[in-house]
């Protein structure tokens, strides 16, 4: 099994970026990733104002997947996420939804051991490992790794975890995917601006699918397909996600608009992924009891 | 067990409303409710533009709970929700997040039988009964039953279902609670503006708690406490809910602000309840692994 180290990373997902690694469709690989600060925080004396933000959320890659063309779908199945032995949580004035209430910047190192997060003061919680940044080269231009979009990127969606499969629309030859920004745990919303930020190794199977259409990334879990939508406000992201799902239901199940809209409101949950990045992200969850297969 | 019919309802939760029913703390009762249209939709020929909206979301009550005072907490445990044999879904231009795409108004009657929703065209789904409107008299003024707030009201939160317990801050003597607007099923967001709207009977145990402080309704499920926050935008509702939860965690667990803020981002999900009422509603879910009891 090929192992790819974190020495090659990108700070932007760009339409014209050059791949550094090549893999075959169907291949299972292990990819090492930095924490979102690129390892800049060695101890609790390093505060957020000291950090070089230009390299935030860097992602290991890009990977060229042989035979993948624009218009295909890249399918990434997350098999396992192995976390480093400690994570970090920073806080700083203005960070997160209550950022105005933060006085002094502070950094907390959080040990992670035997699948548990040792928060301190007797507070111990199970890890819930997830991938914050994962994406492909966008249709055009260049998107910083801290920003989400239809190419993926910093979606901060906690269902992107072991056992999930992610479908990306492919915009450039080879797909050119990259990933990073693991969290040992994060709640929906990422309300203070960070999860338990951590590096690690991700075992994943990468494959392709041809002849199907998708406009945004979709996460498949055991029970649902989640359509990911990012926009400037939650309201706009919800509206966009709802429109994409209704159109998908119409096509997949041969439904009139009205019937698909009713099934959306009756059975589909819109969930917040994150409210703290430059664009915010929601996911519309379509249960498999309604949509058995993503494509007909 | 006392049974209370739907013949007495309110269209507004008002600070000065008069109770029509009286019960004792600790009593289990059955309350009959209209659907959100007050039974105005007899068949599919009745469209939303034909409906008297002033009586939308009417709630059965108000109930005076003996011995309950302002400053107490009213605890309502939902034991069972029995649904009427059919629900209704209306659609109309402008309704819901994709309302601009709706051309003609339409009404769909949806039979509900043996715990299943018979949507039509072979589509059958299990019911997921919930209460859309439930609340107490507000601190001041008068709030239409179609609007949510700190008194409860039209929260459209699908975790308000059998097996859940809801804690309300009490603003007026006797609490003066009322409820209505059941749904046979609704996804988080209530994205087209309605669930499967239906009448029914709710079996519930009503009790009180003294000497504890709460500023918003809280829903307790098997695994979590959910703090409900409504505001003009999702962003504002999230910020307000996060602030309330952090303060609660600080008090309940004797934590500094920073530690509570970190635990919020790491473990608590912010979830969308509804995006279609005059104020939108979110809930911040605090897992019991973090907060074992709501009050110390």
UniProtKB/TrEMBL annotation, chains A, B:
InterPro entries: FmdA_AmdA (IPR004304). It holds the Pfam family FmdA_AmdA. It comes from Siminovitchia fordii. This is Formamidase. It comes from the Bacteria.
